[in-house]
Specification:
The structure is a homodimer.
Chain A: E1 13-15, E2 22-25, E3 30-40, H1 52-68, E4 73-83, H2 89-105, E5 109-117, E6 123-133, H3 157-165, H4 174-185, H5 191-199, H6 214-225
Helix pairs in contact in A: 1-2, 3-4
Chain lengths: ~230, ~230
C-alpha cells in the first residue's frame, strides 16, 4: 500500500519490488539482485532460545534464501545492527562468528553496514546482493496452468521446531526434537539445488522461497502468475 | 573490530567497506556503489521534534549524501521499517510522502524493503545503491600533502539547529532559529555540487561526507590517505 505512489523505474530494471528480490541489469551478461530482511528481538527471535552464533547464521541464511529463490548466486551483504544496552561484546563476537561462518560457506563478501544504538530491543537488518546470468531469473510470475510443483527439503520441520521451542507439546523422541529445533534455528538456504536447476535443461517457469508455508506461498505464485 | 575476520573480496570489488560507500564493478564502464544507514527513535530523532514527512525526507537524504560524497549518482533504495505499536497509519502515510518527495527529486527508484514489528522504538534502515563512471570514484584515500580543502554549505548550521531543538540557549532571531532548525531536520544532499566536480577538470584527490564535523572528518581523510 505504502509503495503504490512510487512509479519511477529505470530502464535497466528487470524486476521491480514485489518478489523475493528486485533485479536490475548492470551489464549485458548479468543481472544484479537485491533484497533486505530484518530480524527483531522478541518479534522474530528471543535471546533466551537462540544463541548469538545461531542468530548470526540465521540472519544471513534467510537473506541468501531470497537470492537463490530466483536462481541467483549471493555475492555481498551489508549489515545494520541495532544494539541495546544488555548486548555484550562477547555476544557480538559470537554473532559475527556465525555471520562469518555462513559468509565463508557461501562465498559472500561483507560489504558495508551501520552500527547504531537501540534503546530496548536488539535488531539486525541484512541487505544482500547477488547476481544471475541474463535470462536466468526465476520469478513468481512465470507459472502456467499444468506446471508440476516441486519442493526441496521436508516441509513443516521449521514450524514444528518453533512449536517445540515455544513449549507446545509434541510427541517425539529427544533426537527428533533436537533435529527439528536445529531446522528452525539454523535454516539451510538451497543454493546447490537452485544452481542445479539453473544449469539443468528442465523448463522452470517459476520459483519462490517458502516461508509462510506451501499453501500460502503457492498462492503467491498463482496470484502473481494469474493462474 | 567486528569485521576484521572478513577477508574475502571479489575480484570486481573496487572499494571494500570502510568509506562512505563500498563499490564494485558490474560492467567495464560503470561502478556500483552501496551504503546503508539506520535512524532509530530516541537515538537519532525524537518523534516530538521531527514530523513524519521530515523524517522520511531525512532518512533518504543522509543516504544520498553517502553516494554523492564519492562522486556517485543515487539510483535505487531499499527501506526497512521497524514499526512500534504507537505508530499510526497516517504517520506512515506522511513518512512515505517525505520519502516519495525526496526520491522524485533525485530520480531514485524504490527497489525493495521489509516491514517488521518493533516492540518499543520505531526505526528506519535505508540501503542505497548508486553508480559512477569507471575511474570517477572519489574516496577518503587519495588525499596528498599540499591539497587544497573545499567544503560545501555553511558548516555548523545543523549542529546549531540540534542545539536549538534541544532547548539550549542561543541568541538569535526567530527567523534564524527557524532556518537553523530546518538545516538540521531536512539536510540537503550535495548532488549538484558533486556532479559538477565529477564533470569538471579540477584534479580531485579525495572527498568525504561531513557528518561528525570538519575537523573529525578531515582526520578520517588524513588517516586513510596516510597524510
Amino acid at each position: 500500500r505504502l509503495s503504490k505512489n512510487f512509479k519511477h523505474h529505470y530502464s535497466n530494471t528487470i524486476l521491480p519490488l514485489g518478489d523475493d528480490c528486485a533485479s536490475y541489469s548492470a551489464s549485458s551478461s548479468k543481472n544484479q539482485l537485491v533484497s533486505t530482511d530484518a530480524l527483531v528481538e522478541n518479534i522474530h527471535f528471543k535471546l533466551s532460545t537462540i544463541s548469538a552464533e545461531q542468530l548470526g547464521k540465521k540472519s544471513i541464511a534467510v537473506n541468501i534464501s531470497d537470492i537463490v529463490a530466483m536462481g541467483g548466486t549471493p555475492t555481498r551483504i551489508l549489515i545494520t545492527l541495532g544494539i541495546s544496552k544488555k548486548i555484550s561484546s562477547s555476544f557480538l563476537d559470537q554473532l559475527y562468528k556465525g555471520i562469518h561462518k555462513t559468509c565463508e560457506l557461501y562465498d559472500i563478501e561483507l560489504f558495508g553496514g551501520d552500527t547504531v544504538s537501540s534503546p530496548n530491543c536488539f535488531f539486525i537488518n541484512v541487505t544482500i546482493i547477488g547476481e544471475t546470468k541474463s535470462g536466468k531469473l526465476f520469478t513468481r510470475k512465470g507459472a502456467k496452468k499444468g506446471d508440476l510443483i516441486f519442493t526441496t527439503g521436508t516441509l513443516g520441520d521449521s514450524s514444528l521446531g518453533l512449536n517445540i521451542q515455544s513449549g507446545k507439546k509434541w510427541k517425539c523422541s529427544a533426537k527428533s526434537k533436537k533435529y527439528l529445533l536445529k531446522k528452525h534455528l539454523t535454516p539451510i538456504p538451497r543454493l546447490k539445488e537452485s544452481q542445479l536447476l539453473v544449469r539443468s535443461t528442465c523448463k522452470i517457469n517459476s520459483m519462490i522461497d517458502i516461508s509462510d508455508g506451501l499453501v500460502q506461498d503457492l498462492h503467491h505464485i498463482c496470484k502473481q502468475s494469474g493462474t
